[in-house]
Amino acid sequence: MKADQPVIDSHCHIDLLLEKGVSLNEILEDAEENRLEAAIQIAASVESFQYSKDLCHTESPVHFYYTVGAHPNETHETDTESGLVFARENRDDKAFKAIGEIGLDYFYSKEHRKTQLEVFNAYLELALELQKPVCIHTRDAHEDTVDLLKNVAGQTPILIHCFTGNRKQMEKYLEMGAFISFSGIVTFKNALDLQEAAKCCPAESMLAETDSPYLSPVPYRGKINRPGWVRHVVTYLETLTQNENLPAALYQNTRDFYRID
With the CA atoms of 42, 45, 48 and 50 taken in that order, what torsion angle do they form, in degrees rounded to the nearest 10? Predict the structure, then answer.
C-alpha cells in the first residue's frame, strides 16, 4: 500500500478500549503512525450513546463519527426504547452516521432469539424512518439475518460488519446490495474460508475494520486492538486480492457507505 494512502476504520469501540486501559492519546498516536483519517465509533449500548456523541464533537486529529444501536447479545437486558429515543433526538447530528450495530447472534444467546428478532426489527424500522444506513452483526444466524434484511434491501445501505462466513453466505448479502466488512480475522492463518470469500468479494463492495479492542490483526494478534491497526487489515486484503487499487477503494467505500463528506 502506498505510504500516503489514508485509511478509515469502519467499526471500532473507543469506549471499550479506554476500559481496557488504553488511553485516547495512545489511540491517537497509533492513528497518526498509520495515517488513520477517520473512525466509526459504534455505540451499541445505552452506556455508550452519550460518550460516543461527545467524542465525535471533541477536537481531534482523527475524524470520529458514531452509530446508535443495540448489540444482539445484550438486547434481553437493555432498554431498547432509550436507544430509539436517542437516535430520533439526534437524527440531524452530522456526526451520527448509521444505525448499528444491530442484528442477531445465536452463538451465545439462542435462548434470547425472540427478543433479538424483535429488537432487530425495531431498529431496522428506525433506520428507514431516519434514512440511515444499517451496520449488521450476525453470528450463527445467517438465514434469519438474510430474511430480515430483505425487508430493507434497496431502501437503505447495508453493511455486514466483521464478516466471518463463507463465499456462499457472502453472495447472499451481495445479492441484496450489501457491503461486506473484513476485520483482523481475515489475517489469521486458519481463516481459509474467509480468505476465499475476500478474494471473491467485489472491490466496490468491501470495507475494512478493526472492531477494536477485539480481533487484532497479524502481527498484533493477542494484543488489545487499536483503530490505527486497520492499516494492517487493508494491507493484507491488498496482498490477498492482488489488487493494488484496493486500499483506495476501501477508503472511498467507507466514505460512501457512512456518507462522509
Answer: 100
Edge-to-edge strand list for the sheet holding 158-160: 7-12, 36-41, 63-68, 96-105, 134-139, 158-160, 179-182, 206-208
**Homologous superfamily of the 7-257 domain (CATH):** Metal-dependent hydrolases (3.20.20.140)
DSSP, residue by residue, 94-132: TTEEEEEEEEEETTT-GGGHHHHHHHHHHHHHHHHHHT-
Q: Which helix (H) or strand (E) holds 41?
A: strand 36-41
Phi, psi (5° rounding) for residue 149?
A: -70, -25
pLDDT in tens, 131-181: 999 999 999 999 999 999 999 999 999 999 999 999 999 999 999 999 999
**φ, ψ for residue 91 (rounded to 5)?**
-55, -30
- Global pTM? 0.97
| Average pLDDT of span 109-131 | 93
Q: Are strands 179-182 and 158-160 parallel, antiparallel or unpaired?
A: parallel
Q: How far is the C-alpha of 190 from the C-alpha of 219, rounded, in Å?
A: 15
How far apart (Å, rounded) are the C-alpha atoms in residues 174 and 182?
14
pLDDT tens profile 222-251:
999 999 999 999 999 999 999 999 999 999
